Fold this sequence. Notes:
This protein is an alpha+beta fold.
Amino acid sequence: MPRTICGTFLLVFLMLTGCFLLAPDAIAQQTAPGTPPIMGTPPTDNPNSTTWQYVRKDEGELVSMGGGSVEKGMNLLGDMGYELFIVTSAIDSGKAGYHFFRRPPCCPPGMQRPRIEYRRADSGEITKEGNGSYQDGLNKIDTSRWELVTVTSTAQGAVGFHYFMRPKQ
């Protein structure tokens, strides 16, 4: 599927879910109003926000944020209350493309944003956890309160990465 079709699909998906955007690349990357975040840094909190905040990070940015680890970069965003809601596949390589996170408007005074932790695993890791069974591996992960959020696919249509989240413990 060409990139323009994927971008159009993502735009339609976001519009249908209530996120009205001008274009796929126009997803807000919140820092100070009107300033995009520096590559590899988490966005800053805006306590006066009354709208949902969105962040788009590619794998390199997450690795940079997480000191060499995609999961650690994702967990930094989770500590700020961002929840992962979609991961695109990079069509030409089959790797994860963009990771889209969102968080609701700021909490009332005295309340903190919920913190979220993330886990990313491929089919082999899941099968290993299930002692040779992919299904048992998924069920075992579920018993640890991990919720499957999304799965990427490779250019050949095979399963790529599985993304899980849960409230930070």
